[in-house]
Amino acid sequence: MKTSTKYGNALLKEGCFRIRKDQLMKNTNYNIFVENGKIGIYVPATSQKIPAVYDTIKVETVEMQGYFVLRLIVSQNGKYGVITIDNKVLIPVTYDRLNYLPIRIENNVVEYFYASKDCKRGLLDYKGQPVLPLQYDGLKRIKSKKAGWISFQVKKGDKESKIAIKPDTTDWVACWVA
């Protein structure tokens, strides 16, 4: 008997399913497959395989300096993490929620993930390092007053503040803004 798994808005059955090329990377085919009710990805061109161990795989892409970068938000047992197409773990599968936030600044793209764990919110970089620690009750991006800076409204208890972050080529610099 074949099982099926909900994937996005589609219901997948056991076997192999193709992701639209235009959704991922030009001139590359990826296959999503389901085994024993779990989802994996197979890349025929390189014979790379992400094993079917995930409940969901959300494919996120961003174009950076002429290339498409793929980030895979995966879930297992209600927890979320991020892996690469070659199955390297960028962010461990330990978060209650992860949302991809690529931000274009001039000709560069900086990658963040909104993260939540134990009802606290924060911001991670693409390697899983905290940019804003998971200590906030509320976190949302707001329009920045300075070019090249990224601003957020944060809430901690009954106090609200604004935080501005300036991406740097070597590290992140953060400061509190009144």
What is the topological layout?
Layout: E1 4-7, E2 10-13, E3 15-18, E4 31-35, E5 38-43, E6 48-54, E7 56-64, E8 67-76, E9 79-83, E10 89-95, E11 97-105, E12 108-117, E13 120-125, E14 130-136, E15 138-142, E16 150-156, E17 159-167, E18 172-177
Antiparallel strand pairs: 1-2, 3-4, 4-5, 5-6, 7-8, 8-9, 9-10, 11-12, 12-13, 13-14, 15-16, 16-17, 17-18
End-to-end span in angstroms?
61 Å
What is the number of helices? 0
Major sheet summary line: 4 strands, antiparallel
Average the pLDDT over all residues and give the rounded result.
Answer: 78
Q: What distinguishing features does this structure have?
A:
disordered N terminus, 18 strands, 67% strand, mainly beta, 178 residues, four-stranded antiparallel β-sheet
Structure description:
The protein is mainly β and 178 residues long. The protein has a domain at 1-93. Helix content is 0%, strand content 67%. The protein is built from no helices and 18 strands. Strands 3-4-5-6 form a 4-stranded antiparallel β-sheet, with no helix packed on it. The chain has a 4-stranded antiparallel β-sheet with strand order 7-8-9-10, with no helix packed on it. Strand 4 and strand 5 form a beta hairpin. It is flat, with a radius of gyration of 18 Å. The chain starts with a strand and ends with a strand. Mean pLDDT is 78; it is low at 1-27 and 169-178.
